[in-house]
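Quick one, probably user error.
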């Protein structure tokens, strides 16, 4: 089997996610997490080309939203490119990040508040409810406050 380099793999993932955003299967899509901004930024020209061809937009994320939806180690300290079509989707994502930060600061990021943030993130990513539930339940690598 032929080896696929990381850059080419990431390009394929971004192409697929952009198509899903374009046709409305996903409202928001994330590139795979990358270990450095340099690695992520090397992909930006291709990501911009994809967005132009699919009619989507991108956002460079240096501090991704951490919730119980994904394992902490998968996203903490990582870098992403977010893909979306409608500006209100990015605004919802940024508001959700801000709300989570405020809940953490207030000492209120637990129980229902914590679950709601993870659920809303899953919904922004257009995951079905049963998938969101399974992902949250299966995740044992969570932030500790």
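Nope, works fine. Designed sequence:
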């Amino acid at each position: 089997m032929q080896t696929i380099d990381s850059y080419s793999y990431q390009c394929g993932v971004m192409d697929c996610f952009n198509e899903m955003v374009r046709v409305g299967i996903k409202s928001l899509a994330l590139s795979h997490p990358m270990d450095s901004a340099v690695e992520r930024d090397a992909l930006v020209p291709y990501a911009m080309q994809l967005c132009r061809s699919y009619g989507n937009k991108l956002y460079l994320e240096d501090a991704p939203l951490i919730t119980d939806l994904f394992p902490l180690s998968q996203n903490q300290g990582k870098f992403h490119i977010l893909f979306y079509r409608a500006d209100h989707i990015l605004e919802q994502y940024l508001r959700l990040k801000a709300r989570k930060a405020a809940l953490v600061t207030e000492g209120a990021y637990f129980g229902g508040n914590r679950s709601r943030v993870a659920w809303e993130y899953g919904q922004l990513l257009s995951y079905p409810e049963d998938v969101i539930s399974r992902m949250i339940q299966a995740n044992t690598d969570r932030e500790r406050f």
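The first strand starts at residue 28 and ends at 30.
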